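Duplicate of #3305? Posting structure anyway:
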């Protein structure tokens, strides 16, 4: 029972965050086999938003210490990662292209994740130290 509680805590989020980060790299820097077309306008941007929203959520939740400093570091890394991957796509992939709107979607997802996790901690009466 003790190991289950331990897995459901910060380690679960940390393992999931690592997996999610690797998934972002894989999906954004490799040619993904053609997927069925889904007629949703701007689906690509929605996916970028979700990638970085979940990235920030998982990494912040993986910390035991609740600190605004850690939250901001995660946000900064997410923004840096989103921009870097776009430049890597431009320079090191064949079928991927740089897209400013992807960066906007990544940024909005990361900031939204940051705000919602910060709000969650506030509503749970967990003090966020500075």
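Output from current build:
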């Amino acid at each position: 029972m003790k190991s289950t509680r331990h897995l459901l805590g910060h380690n679960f989020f940390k393992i999931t965050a690592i997996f999610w980060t690797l998934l972002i790299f894989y999906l954004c820097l490799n040619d993904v086999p053609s997927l069925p077309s889904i007629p949703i306008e701007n689906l690509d941007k929605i996916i970028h938003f979700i990638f970085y929203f979940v990235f920030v959520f998982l990494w912040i939740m993986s910390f035991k210490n609740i600190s605004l400093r850690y939250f901001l570091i995660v946000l900064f890394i997410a923004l840096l990662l989103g921009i870097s991957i776009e430049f890597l796509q431009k320079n090191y992939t064949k079928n991927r292209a740089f897209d400013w709107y992807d960066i906007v979607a990544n940024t909005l997802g990361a900031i939204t994740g940051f705000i919602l996790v910060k709000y969650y901690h506030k509503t749970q009466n967990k003090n966020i130290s500075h």
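Confirmed duplicate; merging threads. The longest helix spans residues 68-92. The radius of gyration is 16 Å.
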